[in-house]
Specification:
alpha/beta, binds pyridoxal-5'-phosphate, 7-stranded mixed β-sheet, globular, Aspartate Aminotransferase, domain 2, 12 strands, Aspartate Aminotransferase, domain 1, 5-stranded mixed β-sheet
Length: 401
């Protein structure tokens, strides 16, 4: 496995994100294959006993077991790190494996975590239910309220955890401001960047310490595999994350890593075109229903901030149609857009968060997060925008609106 002869890391490191998404981390076998090789192997063999002993002792480089390293997974990790502008990255079996590892690897009983209350349902469960079971205190706040972060800090606060834009209400967090506050207090920031992907937003450029991904979403982008990733400094990844990950085993399968490598090749194109389609469709829906939540629309309370920290507004928006009956009537009238709770897919998908992605939370938590009974969330895909407009127009009319 080697890079092209003459490859100079000081040159390749400086490639811009779009180039990194296509070429970063490519290692070639002796066959010189164009596309990355898929190494479906759990173990490795060695020429002699001394070689394996040196690898286990950490004195020689090389693979030992695919829970610890795999060449295809390593290519994905290097590519995501280069794309993110991070020193290091480790792939995970799913987005939730990434979030769990990013939090638990650094938290202990007696620590305190502050998290944004608008979040992916399982991320809320980690903070609200899992952390307290292990003696880790947690507080959830309105992450779009800058003052709320400072007010929530306690002497034992170890981590700030938030997503932006947040699922499903598209709340936007001021990454630079919250990360600066955290730094001043010695707090580690963990940002869930699944909604934007590194093509549209790179939180480390605004001071984030750790960026965690569901690569299931825009990175795969074609609805095929579950995958996740955690990016951070080499010190964080090697000394804090790796001991946790290697021994608990949320390892990504090489096959899924290979699929995500293929997805990353078109990430920039998809993310930008889907953002354009989402903005056009959001404008259309805004003329038909009372409330549309999308950071790309001037009506979003943090539109300008979102456009400062994001390169484009992303493929997802939400809109409120008043009650569950109307929301279900719209979903049932769709002819093109699928009823599906996934996001980041190249196909347009719509869901009713209160009865699906956020059904596991209590009614009070949903109300506090703004997940109302009339809220619908759409992931806008790569279809022709006119077909999407016609489909939504017909569906909204079918709900009597
Ligand atoms: C989907 C998602 C997750 C979880 O990712 P999986 O790959 O489904 O485990 C976490 N955070 C956000 C914001 C998500 O959208």
């Amino acid at each position: 496995m080697k890079k092209r002869t003459g490859t100079d890391r000081t040159v390749t490191r400086n490639w811009r994100p779009v180039t990194q998404a296509l070429r970063g981390g490519t290692w070639r076998s002796e066959h010189g294959e164009t596309s990355e090789a898929l190494f479906l192997t759990s173990g490795y063999t060695y020429d002699d006993a001394a070689t394996v002993a040196a690898r286990f002792a950490g004195e020689a480089e090389g693979m030992t077991y695919s829970r610890l390293q795999n060449p295809t997974v390593a290519m994905l990790e290097e590519r995501i790190a280069l794309l993110e502008g991070a020193e290091a990255c480790r792939a995970q079996a799913s987005g939730m494996a990434a979030m769990t590892a990013a939090l638990l690897c650094q938290l202990s009983a007696g620590d305190h975590v502050v998290a944004g209350r608008a979040a992916f349902g399982s991320c809320r469960w980690l903070v609200d239910s899992l952390c307290p079971r292990f003696g880790i205190e947690s507080t959830t706040i309105d992450a779009a309220d800058d003052a709320a972060w400072e007010a929530a800090i306690r002497p034992n606060t170890k981590v700030f955890f938030f997503e932006t834009p947040a699922n499903p209400t598209l709340d936007v967090v001021d990454i630079a401001q919250v990360c600066a506050l955290a730094k001043a207090h010695g707090i580690v920031t963990v940002v869930d960047n699944a909604f934007a992907s590194p093509a549209l937003q790179r939180p480390m450029e605004f001071g984030a310490d750790v960026v965690a991904y569901s690569a299931t979403k825009l990175m795969d982008g074609q609805g095929r595999v579950l995958a996740g990733a955690v990016c951070g400094s080499s010190q964080f990844i090697d000394e804090v994350l790796l001991p946790f990950q290697r021994n608990t085993g949320p390892t990504l399968s090489p096959f899924n890593a290979w699929v995500v490598l293929k997805g990353l090749e078109t990430l920039d194109l998809r993310a930008r075109r889907q953002s354009e389609n989402a903005l056009a469709l959001g404008r259309f829906v805004e003329g038909r229903v009372p409330r549309v939540l999308h950071p790309g629309l001037p009506s979003h309370p943090r539109h300008e901030l979102a456009m400062r920290q994001m390169e484009a507004c992303g493929p997802i928006f939400a809109f409120d149609v008043g009650d569950r009956d109307r929301a279900f009537a719209i979903l049932d009238a769709l002819q093109l857009v699928d009823i599906s709770n996934n996001i980041g897919d190249a196909r347009s998908l719509m869901c009713h968060p209160a009865s699906t992605t956020h059904a596991g939370l209590t009614a009070e938590t949903r109300a506090e997060m703004g997940v109302t009974e009339g809220l619908l969330r759409i992931n806008v895909g790569l279809e022709d925008i006119e077909d999407l407009r016609e489909d939504l127009d017909r569906a909204i009319a079918a709900a009597g609106m």
